[in-house]
Amino acid sequence: MRLNIMMGTVLVLCLSALSSAAGEKDEAKKHFNAGQKLRLMEDYDAAATEFELSVRLYPTKNALFNLANCYKAMHRYDKALEMYERLLAEFGDKLKPEMKTATNADIATLRSLLGELTIQVNVPGATIVVDGREAGKSPLTDPVILSPGEHIIDVSQEGMEPAQRKIVMVAGEKITSSFALQAVAPPVADPPIEQKEPIGPPQPAAESTPPIAQPSPLEPTTPPAGLTQQVELESGGLSVLFWIGAGSTLAVGAGGGVFWWLALKERNSFNVANEEYDPDSSSMDDWEAIDQHAKKANMYNIIALGASIGAGVLLAGTVVVLIRDIRNKPGERPDRVSVNPGGIAVRF
User: Fold this and answer.
1) Span 215-241, average pLDDT
2) CATH of the domain at 84
3) pLDDT in tens, 182-202
4) Strand 127-130 with 149-156, pairing
C-alpha cells in the first residue's frame, strides 16, 4: 500500500514537471513572436526584452540568434558577442551550416571592433559600474568587453571615497585600470566665527542723470520708382494656381495610397511567415525572408507617411486658393503680385 502511494506521488510529480515545462515552452514562444513583431517596427530595445524572456524560459538557437542581432542593432556589441558565443556553446552541434557560418563571422567582426578592460580594486566587494551599467563586484574574474571610444568607470563601496575614471578604448586593445579606494575621513568641526559689528560703506553723493534722448521714429522708406513690378493675374474664375495645386494633391495622394497598400501587403506577408516560423525547425532562409518583409514594410511606411503629409499640405494650400478665387468676382480689382527689392508680395 505504501509503495503504491509513493509510486503515485512520483507519477504526479513527473506529470506536473512535464506540464510546467510545456507551459514554459508555450510562454517562451509567445515572447519570441512578440519580439519578432517588435523587431519589424525597429523597436530593438523592446524586442530584446521579449527575446530575453523567451531565452530565460526556454532557450532556443533562434531566440539567442535574434537576441544577439537586436543587441548589435542597439550598438551593445559586448552583449551581442556574449549571446553569439553562448549560441555556439549551447547549440553549436545543432546549428545549420548557414547559421553557424553567420555566427562565426559576426563573432570575428565583433572581436575586431571591441577591446578588453581589466579592472583591479584594492578592496573586495566594491561595486563597479561602466557607462552607467553595473559590471559586478570586485574582484572581477573576467575583463569587461567594451566598444571603441570614451568610457566612464565608477567604483564605490560603503565607507570609502568613490572613484571615477575616464578611459579611451581602441579596437583590439587590452587595458588594465587599477583603483585604490580610500576610507572616508571623519568630518572636521569648523572653528567658531567671530562676530564683528558691521561697518557701513560711505554714502556716495547723488549725481544727476542726464535725460536719455528718445530716438526719432523711423520713417517708412519708399522704393525708388521703377523697382516695383506689377504682375496682373487672371481673376473671376479658377486660377492656374488652383489647378496646379489640385493636380499635385491628387498625384501625391495617389502615390501615398500605393505605398500604403505595399506596406500593408508586406506586413501581412510578415505576419503569415512569422506564424509559420518554428524556432526549432525553421532554417536561416526562413528567418531572412521574415527579415526582408520587415525591412520592406518599414520602408514603404516611411514613404507613404511622407506622401500623406505632403498631400495634406498641398490640399490645404489648394483650398486657400479656391476660397480666394471664389471671393474674387469679375469686375473687381485684379490680384497683384508685387516684386520688390525686399521680396515678393501677393495681394488678394
Assistant:
1) 52
2) 1.25.40.10
3) 998 877 767 767 666 666 565
4) antiparallel
